[in-house]
Amino acid sequence: MKITDMEKKQGSFQIHIDSLTLEAGKIHGIIGGNGCGKTTLCKLIMGILKPDRGILDYEGLDLKDITMTAQRPYFIQGSVYENICYPLKLRHIRPDDQKIDHWLNLCGLTEKKHQYARSLSSGEQQKVSMIRALIFDPKFVMIDETLSNLDPENLELFENVIFDIQKKQTITWLLISHRLAHIYKMCDMLHFMHQGIVLASGSKQEILFESNDERIRSFVSNEVIRIES
Ligand SMILES: Nc1ncnc2c1ncn2[C@@H]1O[C@H](COP(=O)(O)OP(=O)(O)OP(=O)(O)O)[C@@H](O)[C@H]1O
Ligand SMILES: [Mg+2]
């Protein structure tokens, strides 16, 4: 996906993406401080927001193959099962109950299948939100801070889910997280946003450890990144 000269104004905030390439098949990370425009960018890519101007080149990708998990998951009134089926219903895909049960089992949510989704704990909601995003085999997935409330074990579970999917079908991911260790572990490419613009794109090494930009260095220096060899 290529974004060129895209602008969107929301109140006093303006996002302006001069040029951003999200190479297909890679795991991209977006980092940057609160309010710099990460969620806004995702909504623009999803088509929830329309840009005031600019070009979003989806390079053949259909909007129905793109999905996003929200920072605060939104559920329809109904059970966990009904929520997981919802994106399938929208796409006229018959639910594969075996596949749904497999996901619920993997996430330790088998007992919660018929529970009212909005009554789940925050971490459980984030897991259901992930299942709901992945259930229809999307080609472009944006994860907006969704994994932030997961305990270390569940975070690792989803990190492995993402790596497993990459091994089988290679889709494009856009991960947003303030946990730099998670970003370092997962991403092929990093994009740093600041006040509505993309300051820099590059490898995680370049962005996290080699940047000369004071804004990036100061952001990164707030967290020690544990590197596992
Ligand atoms: N509908 C709106 N009207 C006015 N301002 C808005 C609107 N939606 C978002 N904004 C502003 O746009 C800016 C960017 O918001 P956005 O949610 O994209 O930030 P973010 O990078 O995702 O931050 P965070 O790390 O806190 O999630 C914020 O200052 C926000 O207040
Ligand atoms: Mg956000």
What would you say this structure looks like, in words?
There is one protein chain. This protein is α/β, with parallel strands linked by helices and 229 residues long. The protein has a domain at 62-177: Rossmann fold (3-Layer(aba) Sandwich). It contains eight helices and nine strands. The protein has helices at residues 38-46, 80-90, 97-106, 122-134, 152-168, 180-186, 204-209, 214-220, and strands spanning 2-10, 13-21, 27-31, 53-57, 66-69, 140-144, 172-176, 189-194, 197-203. The strands form two sheets. The chain has a six-stranded mixed sheet with strand order 5-6-7-3-8-9, sandwiched between helices. It has a three-stranded antiparallel sheet with strand order 2-1-4, covered by helices on one side. Strand 6 (140-144), helix 5 and strand 7 form a beta-alpha-beta unit. It is globular and about 50 Å long. Magnesium ion (MG) is lined by residues 38-39, 71, 144. Adenosine-5'-triphosphate (ATP) binds at residues 10-11, 13, 32, 34-40, 71.
